[in-house]
Amino acid sequence: MSDIKLDAELRTDLGKGASRRLRHAEKVPAIVYGAGQQPVSITLEQRHVMKAQEAEAFYSSIITLNVAGEAVDVLVKDMQRHAYKPRVQHIDFQRVDNTKAIHKAVPLHFLNETTAEAVKNGGKVHHLATEIEVSCLAKDLPEYIEVDVANLELGSSLHLSDIVLPEGVTSVELAKGEDHDQAVVSITTPKGTSEEASDSEEEATEE
Fold first, then answer.
1. Buried b (16+ CB within 10 A) or exposed e, 192-204
2. pTM of structure
C-alpha cells in the first residue's frame, strides 16, 4: 500500500455550473462511492492532486482521503483530464472494503533488462504487458510487481505463471484457467541480425 493522503471537503453545490466554478477556483470535483454506502461528492485542491498523480502508486494503490475529519481508504476508478491543459477535471474514487478482495491493475517493473545474458548476446527485450490485474485484500495490494529477466534465454518468454506474486495476491487472468497464462515479456533476436551475420560470414569466407 502507498502512503498517499489527500484532504477533501464535502460538496453540496452540485451540477455542471458548480463544477465549472470549482475548477476556476483551482478545485477538483470528485465523488466517493461503493462499499454499500451512499455516494459522497467532494472537492480537492488541484495543486495537491497534480502533485499526487505524478506518482505511479496514485493509480494502483490505496489512497487515504481525509473527508471532513474522517479517513476513507479509496482506489482511483476513473480520472478525467483537461483536453490540453495539465489539469484534472474530475475523479471517481471507490471506497475499499477491507474485508473483501479487490481487483486492481498493478504495474510491472522489469529487472536486469540491460545485464541479462541474452541481452548481452544481442537480444532485445519486448514488454508484452506493462501491468497485470490482481485480486487481493486492500492491505495486501502491492504498488508494483517485479519481473526479473536475468535468466530469460534468447527467444524465450516469461508468462503470468512465472511471476512470483506477494503473499495473498493472485492473478485474475490465471484464475480463469491455464489457457489464460499470457506472456508478459520476451527476449528476441533483432530483425536482420541473423542475415547480417550470415553475410559477414560469407564475406569472410570469400576473402
1. eeeeeeeeeeeee
2. 0.79
